[in-house]
Amino acid sequence: MEAVLFRKHGGPDVLTYEDALKPEIRPNEVLVRVRACALNHLDLWVRRGIPGVPIPLPHIPGSDISGEIAQIGAEVSTVRVGQKVVLAPLVSCGKCAACVAGLDNHCRQATNLGYMIDGGCAEFVRAPEVNCLPYPENLSFEEAASIPLVFQTAWHMLLARAELQPGEDVLVLGAGSGVGSAAIQIAKFFGARVIATAGTDEKLQKAKQLGADYLINHKTQKIRDEVRRITNKRGVDVVFEHVGTATWDDSLASLAAGGRLVTCGATTGYDAKVDLRFLFTRQLSLLGSYMGTKSELQTVMKLVAAGKLKPIVDRVFPLAEAAAAHAYLESSSQFGKVVLKV
Ligand SMILES: [Zn+2]
Predict the structure, then answer these.
(1) Exposed e or buried b for every residue in 63-84, given b needs 16+ CB within 10 A?
(2) In this predicted structure, what is the pLDDT of residue 332?
(3) Which residue in 14, 64, 306, 330 has the fewest CB atoms around it within 10 Å?
(4) For residue 106, how far is its CA from the centre of ligand 1 (angstroms)?
(5) In this structure, are residues 342 and 319 in contact, taking their beta carbons and an 8 Å threshold?
(6) How far is the CA of 131 from the centre of ligand 1 (A)?
(7) Cβ contact 34:125 at 8 Å
(8) What residues flank ion ligand 1 with Cβ within 5 A?
(9) CA of 290 to the centre of ligand 1 (A)
(10) Could you tell me the pTM of the whole model?
């Protein structure tokens, strides 16, 4: 099969487009003929190499996958060959206490398709049957592949972790990112007031179209000052963080008393400081979040099929141009998802 893979870590140029062995499925797995694979910042980290994470090489990246079932294992009973499918990215053991409680994102053995195991930047990928999600028929393959990782991450952050309530104020950083554009929609769906930040006015206008109530251009405006102005000095109830070092101080300073900051990533760096006096006197909560559960993703898929949430595709590249797609995502000029068509 044709695949995009890398044999060593580095820049986009380590990605090669070549022949690879078609995966062999286990009895509880399906083989999917990939039609689209959406990129995430995770793909960039995996390609560059993460200290302490020995990713098996050569490696096929790609976590967000849509396609058709090409083959099923002997124990598979809930999907059939030829069926369109979207894959949940998180592959967990399915047997531990966390997994049986439905908290598969707490499983110690969990990984993502395209992370410690091969992913969807290829004609075929293997995945457990339980990772098969119903396909929303109102979507193209490119749109369908753009849903899972960012929507389940944003959902888990806002609902399971920050426990967002109707009428609350939410600051969504990086509205142009996949996770930011998902967060705006979810927060609006639950009746919150959304302040969105982005680095260009063009991205801010798109954020507004998704429902953002207030806009901050973080290149020309100071986030904490604008949040104070918009909220009459109160601050926001929830800050949706994934940017890291570049925005951390502003994020903390934007919280109302009793506010919650929830973070799922650190695209600009991991170093951050907290003034503990500020943390306890203002009774703030700092919350980490990782991926989401399959159950949350099932709910997201229902809302997508009903047209309540929609994936935002920025640009589609052919699989053979994966290196250009990685470079484009690295440039941060996108609004929404960068997708490979397979
Ligand atoms: Zn488990």
Answers:
(1) bbbbbebbbbbeebeebeeebb
(2) 85
(3) 306
(4) 7
(5) yes
(6) 14
(7) yes
(8) 92-93, 96, 99, 107
(9) 15
(10) 0.95
Q: How far is ligand 1, taken at its centre, from the CA of residue 7, in Å?
A: 29
CA–centroid distance, 91 to ligand 1, in Å, is 9
CA atoms within 13 A on the CB side of 10: 10
Amino acid (one-letter) located at 278: F
Residue 227's contacts (CB-CB under 8 Å, 6 or more residues apart) are 171, 195, 216, 235, 236, 254
Whole-number pLDDT of residue 93: 96
Q: Residue for token digits 């020309």?
A: 220
Number of residues in the chain: 342
What is the spatial distance between Cα 254 and Cα 239, in angstroms, rounded to a whole number? 8
> Angle at the Cα of 67 (from 291 to 3), degrees rounded to 5?
85
Tell me the mean pLDDT per 10 residues along the chain, length 342: 98 97 97 98 95 95 98 98 98 96 95 97 98 95 97 98 98 94 98 97 96 97 98 98 96 98 93 95 97 96 96 97 97 92 98
- Phi then psi for residue 156, to 5 deg, are -60, -40
How many Å apart are CA 18 and CA 4, to the nearest integer?
6
Distance 293 CA to ligand 1 centre (A): 12
Cβ neighbourhood burial of 117 (10 Å; 0-12, 13-18, 19+): middle
- SS3 assignment for 24-71: CCCCCEEEEEEEEEECCHHHHHHHHCECCECCCCCECCCCEEEEEEEE
Rounded CA gap, 234 and 219, in Å?
A: 23
Q: 28 alpha carbon to ligand 1 midpoint, in Å?
A: 16
The secondary element (H helix, E strand) that includes residue 153 is helix 148-155
Q: What is the pLDDT of residue 227?
A: 98
